[in-house]
Write a structure and sequence with these properties.
CATH topology of the largest domain: Ribosomal Protein L4, Chain: A
CATH class of the largest domain: Alpha Beta
Strand content: 5-15%
Strand order of the largest sheet: 2-1-3-6-4-5
CATH architecture of the largest domain: 3-Layer(aba) Sandwich
CATH superfamily of the largest domain: Ribosomal protein L4/L1
Helix content: 25-40%
Number of strands: 6
Shape: elongated
Largest sheet: 6 strands, mixed
Number of domains: 2
Length: 209
């Protein structure tokens, strides 16, 4: 697939790039995408939820009333789960939600997400650029020039660039990542994928294997 290259002013340049069919042109595998997104979201969960069970509640173990003769149901101590303030039955316990996902499945998922973006014509290629200092206003100007200020955008850089990352950090609909930090979740969560020229080589090098 051949795409034109734009500058930060939103103007089309004379340059163009050809995206590799091995990375941007495969048949998307929806199940691999689902597994990788699930894997990512599971890893975000802290798993620190906890409720006290019967043995952890502080209180007397005294039997509340005699077994027979009261005319009511038999009961044990005050920590019975049926009473208010009693222990919870099978309550949540701290746990790790992460699960193993093979590297080949992750690679397939990311290639599938990239191919889906290309298939839907949601990729914009930009000339390599840098920012002298963090400037949210300057980054918004770039998005405005590309008519993407109202879209959820994901900008991929070849290497981490602190000034560009800080410039986009306060924008809810914008995210900036380096090619090595690319995730299927971020790809599927964006409406438009913006690639700088140098990042394309890095992405193809990482996923063309």
């Amino acid at each position: 697939m051949k795409l034109s290259v734009y500058n930060t002013k939103g103007k089309e340049t004379s340059k163009s790039v050809t995206l590799s069919k091995d990375v941007f042109g495969i048949e998307p595998n929806n199940h691999a995408i689902y597994l990788d997104v699930k894997h990512y979201l599971a890893a975000q969960r802290k798993g620190t939820h906890k409720s006290k069970e019967r043995g952890e509640i502080s209180g007397s173990r005294r039997k509340l009333r005699k077994q027979k003769g009261s005319g009511a149901a038999r009961v044990g101590d005050i920590k019975n789960p049926l009473f208010r303030g009693g222990g919870r039955v099978f309550g949540p316990r701290p746990r790790n939600y992460e699960f193993k996902l093979n590297k080949k499945v992750k690679t397939l998922a990311r290639k599938s997400a990239l191919s889906q973006m290309a298939k839907d014509k949601n990729i914009i290629v930009l000339e390599d650029f840098s920012m002298d200092s963090p400037s949210t206003k300057g980054y918004v100007k770039i998005l405005s020039n590309l008519e993407q200020e109202n879209n959820k955008t994901l900008l991929i850089l070849a290497d981490s660039n602190k000034n560009i990352i800080l410039s986009s950090r306060n924008l809810k609909k914008s995210k900036v990542l380096s090619a090595s930090s690319l995730t299927t979740y971020d790809l599927m969560n964006a409406n438009k994928l913006m690639l700088v020229e140098s990042s394309i080589k890095e992405i193809e090098k990482n996923y063309k294997k």
